[in-house]
Amino acid sequence: MATSKPAGLEGIVAGDTEICSVAQGDLIYRGYEISDLAENACFEEVAYLLLEGHKPDADQLRFFKDELISNRALPPQAIDTLKTCAPMLEQGTAVPMDVLRSTLSVIGHTDRDCQDNSPEANLAKAKRITAKIPTIIGHMQNLIDGRDLIGVDTGGDANLSHAANLLYMMTGERPTPEAEKVIDVSLTLYAEHDYNASTFTARVIAATLSDMHGALTGAIAALKGPLHGGANEAAMVMLAEIQEHIAKGGTVSDWMHNAFETKKKLMGFGHRVYKNGDHRAPILQALGKKVAEQKGGEFVQLFEIGEEVERIMLEEKNIYPNVDFPCGMTYYTLGIPVPQYTPIFVASRVTGWAAHVMEQHANNRLIRPVSNYTGPAVSKWNDA
Question: Which residues pair with 27 in a beta bridge?
Answer without folding.
Answer: 22
